[in-house]
Design brief:
The protein is α+β, with helices and mostly antiparallel strands. The chain has a domain of 63 residues: Single Sheet (Rubrerythrin, domain 2), CATH 2.20.28. Helices cover 14% and strands 24% of the residues. The protein is built from one helix and five strands; from the N terminus they run E-E-E-E-E-H. Strands 1, 2, 3, 4 and 5 form a five-stranded antiparallel beta sheet that branches. Strand 1 and strand 2 form a beta hairpin. The N and C termini lie far apart (47 Å). InterPro entries: RbpA_sf, Regulatory_FmdB_Zinc_ribbon.
Length: 100
């Protein structure tokens, strides 16, 4: 489904768990099985949420959600900030920028 906008629907199971699923508008079911308790979860009415499934913003959201439960392993100390004088630019347009 590369490049298509697919609506995101919210479902709620009898146990109270809510989850989202993508369906085309023509194929959205009234209920689906809950991934946690496998009971039928009914679609609930929410605001319109359209997602660009292969956009970089959507991929960033997925990786951010994933990092909450699967954080990257740190193998070393962070790099030290560079100290010393900042490089001098000779571009005349940079002289118009505000000074820090």
């Amino acid at each position: 489904m590369r490049g298509f906008t697919v609506p995101l629907y919210t479902f709620k199971c009898p146990a109270g768990d809510q989850f989202d699923a993508h369906f085309s508008m023509a194929e959205v079911p009234a209920a689906v099985d809950c991934p946690d308790c496998t009971q039928p979860a009914r679609r609930i009415i929410t605001g319109v949420r359209l997602a660009q499934t292969n956009s970089s913003a959507y991929q960033l959201l997925d990786s951010t959600k994933r990092s909450a439960h699967e954080p990257d392993v740190v193998t070393g100390l962070p790099a030290k900030p560079r100290s010393g004088p900042q490089p001098v630019t000779t571009n005349p347009l940079h002289q118009k920028l505000p000074k820090p």
